[in-house]
Amino acid sequence: MIATKLNEIKNFCETNSDPAIIKKYQKYFKEGYDGYGIDDKVFKCQLENWVEQWKEEMTIEDYLDLGDELMKNGRFEEKHIAIHFLKSNRANFSKDTFARVGNWFDYGINDWATTDVLCMLVLSGLLYDKVIESENLQAWVNSNSEWRRRAIPVALVELNKLTKKLKPVEAIELVEPLVLDRSEYVQKGIGTLLRGLWKKYPSEIEAFLMKWKDQCGRLIVQYATEKMDKEYKKRFRKSK
């Protein structure tokens, strides 16, 4: 069954590949865009069709097995298909789901966009539904994968969009071990998280930025202070 679906997915992707879209997307990925270039409306429509057609025969275990193969051997869109399929089974998420998708960073997830889609569609759901706690992400802090490390702040960004209740102390506890991370993608993720929390908790976030502004990656401060007044943000410049 899995092999048949893998073939159907690949045939769809190859049939709908567009060189113009490939060229358009390449500029967004410094690490390279290995995709088919599929029109977004066509892509989303087919995803909805598959989810509806396969819902009676595919369990979450089947989708995880399918996802493993798509992550190992698939290209950009195929990896996103794996994530969308899993999201359709959110009611059946478990700690095993978290463990399985965590493994995808070892052999499949290799760009910021796929990381962020996983955070938006799967990791945020795991956190929101209390299948896992934010502390479960702590194990990823020392990962060799910059994408797994980026997923920590981005998952919290997406969780906060759902709940509007994320507390600074919870977020800071998770991302503070990453403030010296050299990956620009990890830094941008942290900065985006802090920027969102600053709107509601300015004093806490500003205190954190003052503590780390002379040591942390510059992109953290740049992104975190983006919505501040031009003169006000100068307070968080690195001391000479």
Supply the CATH superfamily name of the largest domain. ARM repeat domains
Report the average pLDDT across residues.
Answer: 96
Low-confidence stretches: none
- Beta-strand level of the residues, as a percent range? under 5%
SS summary, helix count: 12
CATH topology of the largest domain: Serine Threonine Protein Phosphatase 5, Tetratricopeptide repeat
From N to C, what is the helix and strand string?
Answer: HHHHHHHHHHHH
Overall tally of structural domains: 2
Main β-sheet: number of strands, strand sense, barrel status?
none
Shape: globular
CATH class of the largest domain: Mainly Alpha
Output the radius of gyration.
19 Å
Alpha carbon gap, first and last residue = 62 Å
Annotated CATH architecture of the largest domain:
Alpha Horseshoe
Helix content bin: 55-70%
Given the helix and strand composition, which structural class is it?
Answer: mainly alpha
Number of strands: 0
Q: Can you characterise this structure?
A:
It contains twelve helices and no strands. It is mostly helical and 240 residues long. It folds into two domains: 1-92, no CATH class; 118-240, Serine Threonine Protein Phosphatase 5, Tetratricopeptide repeat (Alpha Horseshoe). Helix 10 runs antiparallel to helix 11 (202-212).
